[in-house]
UniProtKB/TrEMBL annotation:
Domain annotation Nudix hydrolase: ranges: 43-176
CDD domains listed in its UniProt record: NUDIX_Hydrolase
A Pfam match: NUDIX
Name by which UniProt lists this protein: ADP-ribose pyrophosphatase YjhB, NUDIX family
Signal peptide annotation: none
Length: 183
């Protein structure tokens, strides 16, 4: 996968979610910028995430992010890699220790453009997060990385109680529940 593949996927990507649909064109436009995959692009840059579920589709793996202090899916910066599936997989393995990760589909599962607050030495900026659906063995041992405070498999029924209101996670959860019917 490269920026042309991503651009092609974005051209055909459709979603019934208004908040997600509203920024598809922003993602497409960003693919034209040579620096889009570098965190040094201070206006915003691509990141990639893995929405990880167990094979029975009853749990999702979330991390309590150390810098943001919120429960989130696993993922991170592209750091120059235009293959966002590779980025999502690499980040998920680094942040969880899982070896059983399996990409369910090479097409985009979800998109989210969100603001990252200013921190020392880093100005406020946007992350253009491209998300992919992965499955993993819920019984495999998890290894906590330095980027996380905690790491846990959360039942779908408990996600809202655990994370509170996070529209992008709730959207992925809903998509997972709908895709369960199709599998």
């Amino acid at each position: 996968m490269d920026r042309n593949t991503l651009r092609n996927q974005l051209e055909i990507y459709r979603t019934p979610y208004e908040e997600e649909s509203a920024f598809i064109s922003d993602f497409s436009e960003l693919t034209l910028d040579d620096n889009a995959y570098l965190r040094e692009r201070l206006e915003g840059h691509f990141t990639a995430s893995a929405w990880i579920v167990n094979k029975r589709r009853t749990h999702t793996l979330l991390t309590l992010h150390r810098k943001l202090g919120r429960w989130l899916q696993l993922g991170g910066h592209a750091d120059g890699n235009e293959n966002l599936i590779e980025v999502a997989l690499k980040e998920a393995k680094e942040e969880s220790g899982l070896n059983s990760l399996h990409l369910v589909d090479s097409t985009i599962f979800d998109l989210d453009k969100h603001i990252i607050p200013e921190r020392p030495h880093v100005q406020e900026h946007f992350h253009y997060d491209v998300r992919y659906l992965f499955e993993a063995d819920i019984n495999e041992k998890l290894i906590l990385s330095d980027e996380s405070i905690s790491l846990a498999w959360i039942t779908f029924d408990s996600v809202v109680d655990m994370i509170g209101y996070n529209p992008s996670i709730l959207r992925m959860l809903e998509k997972t529940s709908k895709s369960e019917i199709l599998l």
